[in-house]
Amino acid sequence: MWRNRLLSGFPGPFLAVWFLAGVAYGQAPNTCVDCHSALDPPYQVTQEQFSHDIHAQKGLTCASCHGGDPSKADMDAMSKAAGFRGKIERQQVPSLCGRCHSDAAYMRQFNPSLRTDQYSQYLTSVHGKRLAKGDQKVAVCTDCHGLHDIRPPSDTRSGVHPLNVAQTCARCHADASYMKGYSIPTDQFADYSASVHHEALAVRGDLSAPTCSTCHGNHGAAPPGVGTVQNVCSTCHVFQAQLFESSPHKAAFQAASLPGCVVCHGNHRVSRTSDAMLGAGPQSVCLQCHIEGDPGHQVAGEMHQRLTALEVAITSGDQLLARAESSGMEVGQARLEQDQARDALIKARVTIHTSQVARVDEDVQGGLKIAAKAYQGGQNALAERNYRRKGLGLSLLTIVIVLIALFLMIRQIERKPS
Fold first, then answer.
1. Are residues 76 and 126 in the same domain?
2. Residue 374 in this model has a pLDDT that exceeds 80
3. Which residues make Cβ contacts (< 8 Å) with residue 399, sequence separation at least 6?
4. Cα(401)–Cα(406) distance, integer angstroms
5. Which one, 193, 226, 278, 287, has least CB within 10 Å?
């Protein structure tokens, strides 16, 4: 009878949000889970789900969010006297979570390193501002973190684990029908999936690589404006941003209200960079703004020529050293010098953000000197190889002559009469 009354009087999918105060699960009766484990979704909350939840593992229960008395097995468990709140409306979710997660003294007993500004950050976000205006479609805590099986971000099964953040955001932002009316694109996830950032994160497993929350924020999610894109990118790409500050592009982009780094690299679909981006071919990004023959186009061409010259020198050195190594020659020092030349090339590729040929040329010339030294080392190794081969040939020839002479002497001795 109690179960039937519960079904008819307990509407809504949000049966429990976060278990943020109460008695340890497993140490006291929990009639909430006893009953809800037998119900059909969305009302079903099994003991297995509940045991995986980080709040349950910290000793919190359903009553922490929904109120009531889970130790009682009658309708008094859901009475007003027991503080029963029942369904948590979407509008109430952030403030309910914030009731504990904004209390530094309370949260310290569970995790002293956990931030307690999530709720205040959420109020400043696009999601929080729209929710305050009555938009029920925007994300609240449970949309990203889950309901009854909330796991810590370090858990790979969590929706906010770095490997899963993009898919979590995409549940709304890649759904064209759901996002209809917001006047923003819905191809961000598709673009990001083809980006070098996604490759680093999902393919190479680099958890420090950018995902949605890295650039947009998490609880304080807000799209970076035209004037702040460079600041977002510079949190990782520090040197590139510093060099860009001294380039003529800085003032030109500001005057034209262009969003810094995005102009050349894109935003969500950030492709792997190459020297061809400076050239005159189909991969050129300079041709987006510059026409052939203008000063900017000439600067790009000169920088491309210098980078190409250093790369060719390094490639030639690699080929020469490979020949020497395959002949058994020791070229360790030359290999180290090749690595230094490669470092110079990387530095020059970063320096192009200044758009100053002289500064790029300075790095390139340093790399060319090192590459030439390594190439000479390879030539010396091959000369040594040839010298050794000649010496070995002469030695073998001498041995053969001696053997023949010995053979003839033995034959002559054998022919003498005894």
1. yes
2. yes
3. none
4. 9
5. 226
- How many degrees, rounded to 5, is the angle at CA 336 between CA 332 and CA 341? 145
Tell me, yes or no, whether 257 and 319 share the same domain: no
Mean pLDDT of the chain: 89
What count of residues does the chain have? Answer: 418
The pLDDT of residue 280 is 79
Same domain? 401 vs 275 = no
Distance between CA 82 and CA 193 in Å, rounded?
49
**Residue at 408: amino acid letter:** L
For 165, the enclosing helix (H) or strand (E) is helix 165-173
Q: Quick one: the chain helix, strand, coil %, rounded to 5?
A: 60, 0, 40
Half-sphere exposure of 246 (CA within 13 A, CB side): 12
Please check whether residue 352 lies inside any domain of the structure.
yes
Q: What is the pLDDT of residues 182-222, one digit of tens each?
A: 999 999 999 999 999 999 999 999 999 999 999 999 999 98
Task: Tell me, yes or no, whether 179 and 114 share the same domain.
Answer: no
User: Distance (Å, rounded) from C-alpha 317 to C-alpha 117?
Assistant: 55
* Residue 179 near residue 186 (C-beta atoms within 8 A): yes
d(CA 353, CA 360): 9
Can you tell me the mean pLDDT for 150-168?
96
Instruction: For residue 25, list its beta bridge partners.
Output: 28
CB 190 within 8 A of CB 174: yes
Least reliable range by pLDDT among 3-7, 58-62, 102-106, 262-266: 3-7
- The DSSP string of 367-400 is HHHHHHHHHHHHHHHHHHHHHHHHHHHHHHHHHH
User: Is 334 within 8 Å of 321 (Cβ atoms)?
Assistant: yes
Mean pLDDT calculated for residue range 147-166 = 95
Task: Give the number of domains in the chain.
Answer: 4
In angstroms, the CA 293 to CA 280 distance is 11
Q: 44: which 2 tokens?
A: 């079903």
Domain assignment of residue 61, yes or no = yes
Domain range enclosing 170: 151-223
